[in-house]
Amino acid sequence: MTAETRVPLLRVPRGEARARLIEAARNLVRRKGFAATSVDDLCAAAGVTKGAFFHHFASKEALGVALVDDWTEMTGAMFAAHPYNAKDDPLDRVLAYLDLRRALLEQPLPDFTCVAGTTVQETYETSPAIRAAAERSIRSGFDHVLPHLEQALAAHPVPGVTAESLAQQFQVATQGGIILAKAMGDPAPARAAFDHLERYLRLLFDRPENAA
Amino acid sequence: MTAETRVPLLRVPRGEARARLIEAARNLVRRKGFAATSVDDLCAAAGVTKGAFFHHFASKEALGVALVDDWTEMTGAMFAAHPYNAKDDPLDRVLAYLDLRRALLEQPLPDFTCVAGTTVQETYETSPAIRAAAERSIRSGFDHVLPHLEQALAAHPVPGVTAESLAQQFQVATQGGIILAKAMGDPAPARAAFDHLERYLRLLFDRPENAA
DNA sequence: TTGATTACATACCGATTGGTATGTAAGGTT
DNA sequence: AACCTTACATACCAATCGGTATGTAATCAA
Known about the structure:
Two copies of one chain form a homodimer.
Chain A: H1 17-32, H2 39-46, H3 50-56, H4 60-81, H5 90-104, H6 115-123, H7 128-143, H8 146-155, H9 163-184, H10 188-204
Helix pairs in contact in A: 1-2, 1-4, 4-7, 5-8, 5-10, 6-7, 7-9, 8-9, 9-10
Chain A binds a DNA duplex (30 and 30 nucleotides) through helix 3.
């Protein structure tokens, strides 16, 4: 019998395994959740072996943390790069941010779901590390609107309303809208959540729709 | 060797197994999520054997459907029994409902999470049956406020605002608030979500706080 | 050039998974 | 009393789970 010819068989280039695993995790976790996504699933989707997985991550939980942290960085970079920050008026920046969030809802449902929201829903009691990562991610979401809300409130104070608590409502609308969209199989309720949040802001800051 | 004496060993009374399994599922799924809760976990928590489980449920997925449907019925009965429905003014009924929702947040975190929201987050793409059950549950939540919102809007129309879309915001605030509470390990953001929703309604319907 | 380190692949493991096959005792029907 | 059905319990199963042990090829510092 001849010696087996070692077929490299479409190997993932050296150095890319970790990034591929996280990307695979993002896709699979968004569609099946964290617990239902197995390490073997991830390796198959990423095109690497289990050896690669446990070389880069000490455990499945560690991958979960890395996934959420990567998500935080990804979304942070995306929003930072967007021109909604360019507007002069702080409330206009906030409203433009809402436009951007609504535009994201044009994608297929799994692609506008939130990795942090999905994972923390399952793991908040069973994995302190993943919960903490999700908290960082959610808080980083506050920061996309918090400075603008602070400026808007400085120019137009509203009794009983803080910028922090208003910033939270953007995440509430986002996460709540996603759950309703998942349940109804339709992005419409997610869009409506942003619409109502915009109407609320316009009422708070005395900025009716027609007064652009 | 003597014949083994069959010890009945604290058996669950005949006829209770199904209800106990669903109660165990409610507790475990709220804490660990659906996928991470195994059939063995459920049987152990309910104090029954696997034979009992698969006698009552054709599969784990079937239990998931039964769990969510039971949840819908449970919460429906709870809100129907509550005296918030008694107020004369429709908006007062809606505001009293919000008071009730805030009161529920006094419980430990896992006990005010939503079974439908948790399960649909994980299963919306992998189990059509559970997703459909979750949709029924979410929609039944609309109904707790929808008739009152319709009356309130009939008496005080708001251009561009429908009762259906407003009713959805109660679920958005609920589900979004729960996710933030899980991530931060604190019920405060869930409470804030209801506070902002109340302020929004008061603005929409011209009903300031002091005018009780 | 050598030696160490990094980045994987291969092969394997015990435990757990959802599910099944079969037995049995209780309760209702005739 | 005989029989059937319901409601479980017991015992088992193949597949999959997260994780480990070990081997090897590429990279890099000296």
